[in-house]
Design a protein that fits this description.
This protein has three helices and four strands; from the N terminus they run βαββαβα. The chain has about 90 residues and is α+β, with helices and mostly antiparallel strands. The strands form two sheets. Strands 1-4 form a two-stranded antiparallel sheet. Strands 2-3 form a two-stranded antiparallel ribbon. It is globular.
């Protein structure tokens, strides 16, 4: 899992990261059924190509490399993996 979306995204769900992602690995998108009910956006670790395009696009600095994820947000690695695997279609 190269990148993880952490707590600062909760309640914000700014989709600038979705717009710059070249591999469509950030979900839910605004046009997906689960967007309104999702607390935050999630990166699918199976689809992420580790390009880093999403990091500077995030206005709340919620996206981290897994190894740089602050200790207080380590749980978000598992949250991203589980939620992204549910698919928002």
């Amino acid at each position: 899992m190269p990148y993880v979306i952490a707590e600062p995204c909760i309640g914000v769900k700014d989709t600038a990261c979705v717009d710059v992602c070249p591999c469509d690995c950030i979900h839910p998108r605004k046009d997906e059924a689960g967007f309104s009910s999702a607390a935050q956006l999630y990166i699918d670790p199976q689809e992420c190509i580790d390009c880093g395009a999403c990091v500077p696009a995030c206005p709340v600095s919620a996206i981290y490399l897994l190894e740089d994820l602050p200790e207080r947000w380590k749980r978000f690695a598992a949250i991203n993996a589980v939620r992204a695997s549910l698919r928002f279609e």
